[in-house]
Design brief:
The structure is a single chain. The chain has about 120 residues and is mainly alpha-helical. The protein has one domain (about 5-124). About 80% of the residues lie in helices and about 0% in strands. It has helices spanning about 5-30, 40-50, 50-70, 75-80, 85-100, 105-124. About 15% of the residues are buried.
Amino acid sequence: MTLVSLSLLLTGVLLNAAAQLLLKAGTNAIGHFEFSLENAVPVTLRLALEPHILGGMACYAVSLVVWIMGLSRVPVSIAYPLLSIGYVLNAIAAWYLLGESMTGQRMAGIGFIIVGVWLVTRSG
């Protein structure tokens, strides 16, 4: 895998992870909501106007383009496992930025993911 290919894929993963964090920050700002026929329009407007959610959607859009560019250069059997890095980044960022829990079992799982991604990328 070339440096350009790896850079494209990792950029896509980072943007996807950022999108998740922004969407969560947006839902934290809005609070718990339920969709029903009566409140579909107000809830949709609140979601559509929340800056974090707009930022998350933008990150998703750019990540899709970058990911497609990466897939044009790397077999999907190598590229797709790299998405697991997004889980690692999100778990750490959610712990640090959002105060979510980081248990020993979760850290062990993250370690397995890192080793697995490393093994898969080394096989190609």
